[in-house]
Amino acid sequence: MNVLPQPAAMARNAQAPLVIRRVDAIPVALPLKAPMKMAAETITAANNLLVRIEAADGTVGWGEAASAPTMTGDTQGGMVAAVRDHLGPMLVGQDAHNWQTLRPALHRALLGNGGPHSAVEMAVLDLLGRASGKRLIDLVGKPKRNAVKPMWLLGNKTAEEDVAEAHAKEKLGFHFFKLKIGVKPLAKEIAIAHAVRSALPKMPLCADANCGLTFAAAHSYAEKTKKAGLLFVEQPLAYDDIEGLRKLTRATKVPIGIDEGIHSLADIGASARAGAGGVSLKLIKLGGMTAALEAGKLCQRLGLSVNIAAKIAESSIGSAAAVHLACGVPKADWGVSITHFYLAEDIVRRPLPLADGFVALPSGPGLGVEVDEAAVARFRVR
Ligand SMILES: [Mg+2]
């Protein structure tokens, strides 16, 4: 605890201190509109952590992280304990303006735990934005764009259902689709890629196996869907199979993306050296906004394509943070997954809207969304 700035240091701040008086870790279960089946799990509700940070002057900031046992190892109970017992107590009494000093101290005190660290940083930045009237993105960098084009995930049992859903979502303004693979027999998944491609001849399409393919299946899928023109195939092999990745990228020209394999800047470098064409950046994997923005810059230096994603599913709190991130990185050429669209109900007053195929960078202070505390109470896990 003695690594943190002492109260006396606060007096030297030019700004009036923004002293954190309370940190709450709130577990919620947010029902999805429809179950999402992936290679290692089927999600029917998002079991997320919300972090509510209150300053002595009554200003409140919010953060969110999805539990992701098969991606980060974070469970909902573990995330609550991380914030309630470790990160929260370190923050109470501190001046939020000292965040750039506090952040590394928190990471030294609690290794891993990308989800809790990310939710805490999101809440602190939201708090700082609300106190200063600045957007979150203006606190951590400069926007490179002011809106993002969200992608929609397709994972039905049949090609007909995927095509029908793609057409319906296209009418709502989605202009980028991702096929969830690694679930059905390979021949069927290859046929679905071709069926969706012929139904949507010019649409950007990609596929995500969530670690669910063998090397032989991954190679076969990439080669046999070539005519479908997939932009990339994401995480076909196990998250730690760097040798398999190296072999696969030598055996096919189809770009391979890495998602579950990225938990640090070092993982991004290792994936690039193994021939990956791009990576998926998520706040929960990298431990927050500061690290994810660094990761975006590293990808630019390494020539990697970038997908920015929230986990299935995060409310408009986590999704707003993903939009700030996607607008702050040098490029997000492999699309952006904004996932509050998959929830049956949101927990903010005005969920992020989709307009003409774009989700705009929120213009309000902090994250730019207003949390509905009554909705939070309704979905709270007790
Ligand atoms: Mg993925």
Query: Within the CATH hierarchy, at the fold level, what is the topology of the largest domain?
Result: TIM Barrel
**Number of β-strand runs:** 13
What portion of residues is helical?
A: 25-40%
State the separation between the terminal residues, measured CA to CA. 30 Å
Quaternary form: single chain
Q: How do the helices and strands follow one another from N- to C-terminus?
A: HEEEHHHHEEHEHEHEHEHEHHEHEEH
CATH superfamily of the largest domain: Enolase-like C-terminal domain
Radius of gyration computed on alpha carbons: 20 Å
Main sheet characteristics: 8 strands, parallel
Count of domain modules = 2
Kindly estimate the percentage of residues that lie in beta strands according to DSSP.
15-25%
Q: How many distinct helices?
A: 14
The coarse silhouette is globular
- The order of strands across the largest sheet is 5-6-7-8-9-10-11-12
Q: Give the integer mean of the pLDDT values.
A: 95
Q: What small molecules does this complex bind?
A: magnesium ion
